[in-house]
Amino acid sequence: MLRILNTANFKCIGCHFRLTQCARTLTEKKGFSEKLMDGPQFEDFLKNDFKDYKGKLKLEINESGRLRLPPWLKTEIPMGKSYSKIKAQLRQLRLSTVCEEARCPNIGECWGGGSHGTATATIMLMGDTCTRGCRFCSVKTARIPPPLDVDEPVNTAIAITDWGLDYIVLTSVDRDDLKDGGANHIASTVKEIKKRSNILVECLVPDFRGDENCVAIIVNSNLDVFAHNIETVERLTPFVRDIRARYRQSLAVLQAAKKFNPDLITKSSIMLGLGETDQEVEQTMRDLRDVGVDAITLGQYMQPTKRHLKVIEYVTPQKFKAWESIGNQLGFLYTASGPLVRSSYKAGEYFLTNILKRRKKQQIDNNIIS
């Protein structure tokens, strides 16, 4: 399941439910390493060489107007049977998707499966209304959203089990109106999924106002990957995210997850193009590594509506490639970096699946030896 919510952006909100389904073809017989190699890479989205693009890519200080969309961000939206099937089943089970609520431009590629046969959807748990108002995100907000759907954990588990998925990402809106921030609801969903299948589960969660007890509830739910997005650099955080979402608080949440389970894979995401400097981006990456974050994604911020923050800069594919190299040098297990990369990235899910399967096999082998 993958994506920056936009918004085509990462998601500030919390829980995406990512459905990753490999087409029933000969690919099913391949090993995870082969699947990773065959999985979609950023180059798959590019049709031409854009190194010679001469358009304006960055606004100067106090400059008005908006930048033109560069060619590497103009993608076709394929629709197909998989897209229609997923949409119909989601409606039937009353599940919300961040793909729709956040107006993600990758929805056709993900839901339709594209040329790689990997159908993906991102479902928000706890409804479609967030208690926070981040300036990059188009998900609707309210001080007191509707009550939780008590059937959602079971309905979600039924849906993803029925689709025969290998790896899912669950995400959610922020629910500051709830004492536990919705942690028990998310954990219940994970448990319902694990009860029915061996699907690998990633949870992209809110910061729970920094409450470590809520973090522990998620960690102890038997999930496989704990994700929380830092979103942007420290200087820009007060202007980009809701005032209740603090940079150091997000780092503390990621650190707490590692404290409760040092073997748990943790993950975070950064949006680029909001006016950050290279030094600030690198410092943010270092801050994430310092608290033990294993995987990171970097993608282009895209303005969802005229009411949201403007794009200050369109970062080139070459620059994103450089950030990938820096991520590898800093020691991240996995760095996905590209204009169209979102917090859940299809190739990244293949990679993390490979790591998780290998780790579980090693644990089994160790138990046999001992």
TrEMBL record:
Describe the location of the Radical SAM core domain by residue ranges.
115-333
User: Where does this protein reside within or beyond the cell?
Assistant: Mitochondrion
Q: What is its EC number?
A: 2.8.1.8
The UniProt family comment states: Belongs to the radical SAM superfamily. Lipoyl synthase family.
- Pathway the protein contributes to: Protein modification; protein lipoylation via endogenous pathway; protein N(6)-(lipoyl)lysine from octanoyl-[acyl-carrier-protein]: step 2/2
Q: Name one Pfam family in it.
A: LIAS_N
Name its GO BP terms in alphabetical order: protein lipoylation
- Where does this protein hold [4Fe-4S] cluster 1? C99, C104, C110, S344
4Fe-4S among keywords: yes
CDD domains named among the record's database cross-references:
Radical_SAM
Gene Ontology molecular function terms on file? 4 iron, 4 sulfur cluster binding; lipoate synthase activity; metal ion binding
- List, alphabetically, the PROSITE patterns matched: RADICAL_SAM
This chain belongs to the protein called Lipoyl synthase, mitochondrial
Spell out the reaction equation it catalyses: [[Fe-S] cluster scaffold protein carrying a second [4Fe-4S](2+) cluster] + N(6)-octanoyl-L-lysyl-[protein] + 2 oxidized [2Fe-2S]-[ferredoxin] + 2 S-adenosyl-L-methionine + 4 H(+) = [[Fe-S] cluster scaffold protein] + N(6)-[(R)-dihydrolipoyl]-L-lysyl-[protein] + 4 Fe(3+) + 2 hydrogen sulfide + 2 5'-deoxyadenosine + 2 L-methionine + 2 reduced [2Fe-2S]-[ferredoxin]
Cofactor, free-text remark:
Binds 2 [4Fe-4S] clusters per subunit. One cluster is coordinated with 3 cysteines and an exchangeable S-adenosyl-L-methionine.
Enumerate the UniProt keywords alphabetically: 4Fe-4S, Iron, Iron-sulfur, Metal-binding, Mitochondrion, S-adenosyl-L-methionine, Transferase
Q: Which InterPro entries match?
A: Aldolase_TIM (IPR013785), Elp3/MiaA/NifB-like_rSAM (IPR006638), LIAS_N (IPR031691), Lipoyl_synth (IPR003698), rSAM (IPR007197), rSAM_sf (IPR058240)
Instruction: List the cofactors.
Output: [4Fe-4S] cluster
**Where mainly found?**
mitochondrion
Where do the annotations place [4Fe-4S] cluster 2 binding?
C130, C134, C137
Provide the species name.
Pogonomyrmex barbatus (red harvester ant)
Question: What GO CC annotations are associated with the protein?
Answer: mitochondrion
